[in-house]
Amino acid sequence: MNTYFATCPRGLEALLADELTAVGAGKTQAVAGGVQFVGDWSVCYRANLESRLATRILWHVAHGPYTREEDIYRLAMTQPWHEFFDLSRTFRVLTTATKSPLRSIDFVTLRVKDAVCDRFRAQGGERPSVDTREPDVRIHVYLTERDCTLYLDTSGAPLWQRGLRQATVEAPLKENLAAGILKLTGWQPGMPFVDPMCGSGTFLLEAVQVALDRAPGLGRGFAFEKLATFEAINWAKLRADAEARCKPVAPLPIRGGDSDERAVRATRRNLQEAGFGGAVVVERADMLETTPPAESGILLANPPYGERIGEQEELAAFYPRLGEALKKRWAGWNCYFFTADTRLPKLVRLKPSRKTPLFNGALECRLYEIKVVAGSNRH
Question: Which residues lie below 8 Å from residue 257, measured CB to CB, with a gap of 6+?
């Protein structure tokens, strides 16, 4: 059994723990920023292939106390790196620290790189090459105040890179955050779903993949394929099973809209290139004029955050009109708005039944749930 740590956007840790348990992970423990778990290589492969919420799956290699850089060098030097990856593979070391007393994180990175190369030389006289841009192998060093943990990255490119979204409009959400928000709404396949401010279609792409039972990692490769521990036959079977499970593309009760023609074009292109062109209707439409396609369902939108003064004034004028449109047209629907703009509930004049704090990168946001009933009360 190996120990792993799955990173994720802050606020999604509990959901990620459930997701990992579903792919066979044991001893799941959610902490800030991710979930620790144990499992064999099948669990690692499935977590990478199936997780909609994780950013990376890191394999725990070593852990030890330190007071200075040389303690970290010694910890790294004692690891059998030659058993983890081949001399022909390029590698990179990345260091992150929380409350570390050491003055230079860059120096720690350098010392771990030296330790890896020195260990390879001690084994066979040669050392692997470093590639800081597109390495085959990433070694992650995590420092707390007193302890150092070494991980090998089994994912490679972050898992939110599904390989599906080719065209983007400004500041799109990362796919794993979008998948987490979608899960928090309680939406299930078969339920009507509308994103009236679809941008480049991230929520729609995630919803279609869930509806078709398509594993999010089917369109990409992973770093574990380049490790010496790689079980090729095991991985081929897991991947084939996931492929066989996918449902055929057919029209779904999922709709998208945006007032910006560029966004509509980007969304249609992304759906088409992902092979989902016939599954979703996407139209140019003003959110305030959009009519629901069914009596009930889930509406989910990521409105602009209003980071500039002019935008803030526009949003302050838009929110009351949004509230009126929701009351007029969307009674019976559960409506969700993901935003960093805390003025939204007050200016929409509809009381949220739930506020879920989430982080979009470093930016603190909220997912507001507004259940629209006929004749919804103002504050």
Answer: 194, 195, 196, 197, 198, 264, 282, 283, 284, 285, 287, 290
